[in-house]
Amino acid sequence: MIDAPPSVVIEGLRKTFSGPDGKPFDAVAGISLSIRPGTLTAFVGPDGAGKTTLMRMMAGLLRPDGGKLSVLGIDLLVDPQSVQNRISYMPQRFGLYEDLSVQENLDLYADLHGVPPAVRAERFSRLLAMTDLASFTQRPAGKLSGGMKQKLGLACTLVRVPDLLLLDEPSVGVDPLSRRDLWRIIEQLIEAEGLSVIASTAYMDEAQRCDQVFVLNRGALLAEGTPAALTARADGLTYVVTPDADVPARDLQARLIDAPGLVVDAVPSGGQVRFIRQPACDDARLKELLHGCDAQPREAELEDAFMLLLHEHEGPAREASVPPPLAAGRADGPIPGDDGAPVILVRDLVRRFGDFTAVANTSFDVRRGEIFGLLGPNGAGKTTTFRMLCGLLPASSGELRVAGVNLRTARAAARARIGYVAQKFSLYSNLTVRENLDFFGGAYGLRGKRRQDRVREIIRQFDLDPSAPSGNLPLGYKQRLAMAAGLLHEPEILFLDEPTSGIDPLARRAFWRTITALSQAGVTIVVTTHFMEEAEYCDRVAIQDAGRLLALGTPREVRARSGTAAGHMNEAFIAIVEQARAAEGHARVAA
Amino acid sequence: MERLVASLAQILALCRKEIIALLKDPANRVILAAPIMIQSMLFGYAATFDLKHVPYAVLDQSRSAASTAFLARLDGTGVFEREATLASPGQIAEVIEDGKVLLAISIPADFATRLAAGREAPLQVILDGRNSTTAGAAAGYVAAVTMAFNKARGAASPITVERRAWFNPNLDSRWQIMPAMIATLSMLQTLLLAALSIAREREQGTFDQLLVTPLTPLQILVGKAVPAIMVGVMQSTLVLLVVRFWFQIPMAGSPWLLYLGLLGFTGASVGIGMSISALSLNMQQAMLHTFLVIMPLTLLSGLLTPVRNMPDVLRIATYANPLRFGVDLVRRVYLEGAGLGDVVFDFLPMVAVAGVTLPLAAWLFRNRLA
User: Fold this and answer.
1) What average pLDDT is seen over chain A?
2) Same domain, yes or no, for B143 and B261?
3) Cα distances (Å, whole numbers) of residue A39 to A68, A210, A230, A579, B73
4) In this structure, is residue B310 part of a structural domain?
5) Residues A392-407: pLDDT tens digits?
6) Which among A232, A340, A568, B168 is most buried, taking Cβ atoms within 10 Å?
7) Chain A residues touching B9 at Cβ < 8 A
8) Nearest residue on chain B to A412, judged by CA atoms?
9) pLDDT digits (tens, 9 = 90+) for B182-215
10) Residues of A with CB below 8 A from B212's CB?
C-alpha cells in the first residue's frame, strides 16, 4: 500500500477565468498536492475556493492554464481519455433524465459506460439496496426528493467500478438525513471495493470522516493533513461561555465577533457561545469583553481550525467582516407599537397543489421583535409557507395575519409593512445601486425628499457605492444591497429566504451580525435556512417535514424535545424528523 | 386625491425603472432603432408587386412589319426585356422551365395576313404560373399593350375602360404597402418587448421582489404597459418619417387621428404581449409564443391578401386581430384622409382586444401557477 503510486499528483496547477467585471482572476492559483490511493480525501473551502474547478480539471473536463496534473499515474494533459475510462465523476448537479424512471436512468448510464449485461443485475441490486431506492425503481427521477435524486446520481455514477471516484459537493442542498445516508454509502464503497474517493464539501462534519483534508480558499491551498492534525492547530484557543440568564446568546456572540483583535470567531450554540480567541489575545481585555462571564476551555474541532485558517488567509481587511452600522434610535426603550399581540398569526394554514399537500394544518405565531426560523429539509414545505407569509402565494385555506392585516383580503396593505430578501440576488442587475434603491423606494410609496433622504441614509448605512452596477458587485455586497432594498421603507417585518446559502462562513457570520443588530433595533425577522446550526441565532424555530410542523419553540426547547439536549441542532433535527417519520409509519401500520 | 397621487408616483417609479433598464443596455438601444429603419427601407424597395423588369421570350413565326411593330411597343414600355428570340415552339418550355423568362409570346405565322384581312389575329402568351401574382400582373401589362396596339390600328373595341385609381393614382403598390408598415413593423417589436418584460423578471427572479412591494397588479400593469406603448409609438413614428420623407408618399389625413389610432393599436399589441409574458415561465417560452402569434396575426391582417376573400371562419377570426384594423386605419387615414367618423369602427375591435388582454395579463401576474 505504501508503495502504491499516488492516485493524483498536482504541481503548480493554475486556471484563470474572467470575472463578472471583465478582469481575470485565478480560480486555481498554483496548487501542488498529491493524494494517496485507497483513501477518502476531502477538499474543503468556502464558495469560490476553487473546489469545483479543481475537480473538473481532475476529471479532464477543463484544461488547466498551467502546471502539471496526473491522475492514476497518467498525464491528464496528454491522454485524458484513458484517465476518463478509469474514473467516475459526479458533478454538483448530476444529469439525471427527469422523465425516465430510476431503473431507466441506471440502464442508460450502464449503456453509456458499456457495462456488460452479465454483471448489471448484481451491480444494480447492490446499488439500489445501498441507496434505499429498490422500492422506487419505476418512479420517474423527476418525482424523487432532492436527497433521493442525489443518491440516484451517485448510483448512476457507480454503475461501473472506477479506480477513482470524484464527487463535487455531493451533499449540497441535501437535507441532514439524506446527507448522512450519502456518506454511509461512500464509506461502504471504500471498504468493500477499495476505490479512492475525492469529495469536495463545505461541511466540516463530512471532512471529519475523511482520511485526508485539503483546505482551499480563493484558489490557494491553505493547509493539508488528517482531520486530527488540522484540528490540533486550534488547540488551546477554543472556549465556550454561558451568558447571563437574561441575555440571548446571540447578543454575547455579537459582542465577541465585534472584537476581531481578541476573538477569531464566535457562534451561538445551545444557549452558550463557542468562540476561538486570538492566539495573541490579552487575557484581561478578553475578560472585560465577556462582562465577567466565565469562559471554559473546550475541545477544538475541525471547524475551529478551518475558521482559524480562513481568518488568517483573508486577513482583517476583509470586506464582509465589517458589519454595516445600523440606525440606532429604535434600539432603546420599548419597541414601538408593541401591544403584545403577535405580529404574524398563522392558523390552520393549508396549501395544496392539485392533490399534493405542500403545507398541512400549520399554526404558529411570531412575536414582535423576534427572530423566527423556519427549518426543514428541501421539499418540507418551508418555502411554500414562507411564500404565503410574504403574500407571494395565496393559501388554500386557513387564517394568515401579517402586521395585523389579513393577508387573504388586504395583500397590498400587508406588503407595505414587510421587507423581503430573496434567496437568489433578485434586484435589477443592469441598474446601478442607486437606481435600484430609487425604484424600490418609489414602489414602496416613498416620494420626493423623503425618498432621497432614505436612499442616501441606507447607502451610508450599508456602505454601498451608489454608482456601481449592481450586477457586478461581489456576492457579499449584492446581499447588502438586497437587504438595503428590503429595509428602505423601514418595514416591521423582514423576510429572508435562505439568505446564507451559497455564501462562505465568514460572510455568514457578518450576515448574522447584521440580523442581530436589526433585531435589536426592533425589526421582526423571519428567516428560512437549511443550515441547522443557524437556528441558534433564532429566538424560536419551527421545524417542518413533509408539509407538517414537527416542532416549535426556542432552540433549547427543540433540542430538549428531541432528547439530544447537549448536542448540535443538526442531531436534534435528525432525531425529530426520524421520530415523526417513525410515528407516521406506526400510524400507517396500525391503520 | 392624495392616494391617487401616491399611486401614480408608484407607477411612475416603475415606468422610470423600465425605461432606464431598456436604455441602459447599449445593445438594446441599437435594437430599438436600427432594425425598424432597415426593415422600412427593405419593404420600401424590395416588397413591391409592381413589375419593373419582365424578362420575356418571343417566337415570331410571322416575321412581318405588324409583328415587329407589336414587339416594338412591348419593348417600348420599358418593363419588358427581351431575353431570348426563339426559333421553334419546342424551345418555349425550356426557357420558361429554367426561369429565364416570365412569359413567352408566340406570334403565329398568319398574324400579319389575318390582320390585313381585318380578321381576329390571336397571340399566344405563355406564362410562368409558379408565381401567380407576378404572372397575373405581367399578363395584364401585355393585355394593356395589345389594347393600345389595337387602338393605334383604329381597331379599338367599342368600349374602352378609363382607369382612375383613387388615393393611389398610379396604383403604386409601394403606396399600398408602406403606410401599412407604420403599424405592422412596430407591432413585431412591441409584442416582443411586452412579451419579454415579465418573462425576463420571472426568469431572473426579480418578479417576486416586485410582487412583494405594495404595487397592485393594476399598477404593475400600467407601469409596464406605458413604456412598452411609448416604444411602440416611437417606432411607428420612425417608420412614418421614412414613409413620408424618404419615400415621399403624401399623407392625406390628420396626424392627430393617426396617432390616436396608433395608440389604440399599440395598446392592443402590448396587451397581447403582456398576456403572453404573464403566461410564460421564461424568456425562451415568451419568445416562442410571440413568434407563434405573429404569423397568424400578419396573415389574417389583410395586409397582403384581402380579408373578404378568406373563408368565413377565418374572416370572423380576424376581428380579434388588432393588426387588421390597425392596417386599415392607418391606410385610410394616411392615404384617404379619413376622419374619425370614418374609422371609428376600426377602433372598436382594437379597444376590445386591449380591454380583454390587459386585464387578463394583470390577473395572470398573481394567479399563474408557478
Assistant:
1) 83
2) no
3) 22, 8, 17, 34, 97
4) yes
5) 888 888 888 888 888 7
6) A568
7) 442, 445, 447
8) B214
9) 999 889 889 988 998 888 888 888 888 888 888 8
10) 390-392, 415, 418, 420, 495
